[in-house]
Write a structure and sequence with these properties.
The chain has about 280 residues and is α/β, with parallel strands linked by helices. The chain has helices at about 15-30, 50-55, 65-75, 160-165, 180-200, 250-260, 260-265; strands at about 1-5, 35, 55-60, 80-85, 95-100, 105-110, 115-120, 125, 140-145, 145-150, 170-175, 200-205, 210, 215-220, 225, 230-235, 240-245. It has seven helices and 17 strands.
Length: about 280
């Protein structure tokens, strides 16, 4: 299967972001990709809460999801919107991913579970939970001859989520993201390669990159990684564009046969020895 990552520099104008999304999907499809993934926050990167609430739309009115359904059918591809903000019926916002099948139907949706609530050493402070409602469900989806696991950005720091997807049969794990430059430079490659190695799975991670309209800076470096942990394609910068790779869907089974850690995993109990009783 030929797969592609779209790297973007989405801003505060949903219409402009959607137009760029459409252009890059066309480029990836023209390169022969059967599966195309976009980054987290494809349709809107806006850290100001009031401005975001004015721009965000309910799912039936969201321009990115509407365009994705049309483009998947038009190009006969699996189109994975890494995420975009969606206004929920309860008035809260979901950081929501969606996978569209080649017939234009929506095959799966996933709401980001883990909220990026951190204070970074360079003074950056993020509180996703102040705007977004976390999801509650692990999601996998069958895509032709492979099972796909859906995740978003900060989820990559929670290995048990990816392990549960792999144990549920996922051969392709995903991590579309808008990683900050600081954390990306330190951890992006090692985290994604680790998720691939420990689960014997492909990892596909489309990224946002560069300085955005709202002032944030993201790392870029979209990656496609094989089940042995080798990087087989990388957008080695933070500029918009695409990367493409051909993946062998038999490779996950081969990797898991060589290192059968999923099969060898055992349950255990936690025993704590109080310090005063230690010898």
């Amino acid at each position: 299967m030929r797969v592609a990552c779209i790297q973007m520099r989405s801003g505060t104008d949903p219409d402009r972001n959607t137009a760029e999304f459409e252009r890059l999907v066309g480029e990836a499809a023209g390169a022969g990709a059967r599966y195309v993934q976009t980054p987290e926050m494809t349709g809107l990167v806006q850290k100001d809460r009031a401005a975001l609430m004015k721009a965000v739309r309910p799912e039936p009115d969201d321009p990115v999801f509407a365009a994705a359904a049309r483009l998947a059918k038009e190009h006969d591809i699996w189109l994975h919107v890494g995420s975009t903000p969606i206004l929920r019926e309860d008035g809260k916002v979901a950081n929501r991913a969606a996978l569209f099948a080649p017939d234009g139907t929506r095959a799966a949706t996933y709401d980001k579970i883990h909220m990026f609530d951190v204070d970074l050493p360079n003074g950056e402070s993020w509180r996703e939970s102040a705007i977004y409602a976390p999801g509650e469900a692990l999601v996998t989806c069958d895509m032709e001859d492979a099972r796909l696991g859906l995740a978003i950005c900060y989820d990559v720091r929670f290995p048990h989520l990816f392990r549960d997807q792999a144990r549920a049969g996922a051969a392709i794990l995903t991590s579309p993201a808008a990683f900050t430059r600081q954390t990306g430079e330190a951890h992006w490659h090692v985290l994604l390669r680790s998720r691939a190695i420990e689960n014997g799975a492909f990892v596909i991670a489309a990224a946002q990159g560069g300085v955005h309209d709202d002032g944030r800076e993201t790392y870029g470096h979209s990656l496609i990684i094989d089940p042995w942990g080798a990087i087989i394609a990388e957008k080695d910068d933070d500029a918009p564009g695409i990367i493409v790779a051909d993946i062998d869907l038999s490779a996950p089974a081969a990797a898991r046969g060589r290192i059968p850690n999923l099969q060898n995993a055992r349950s255990y109990v936690h025993e704590n020895t109080p310090k005063e009783n230690a010898r």
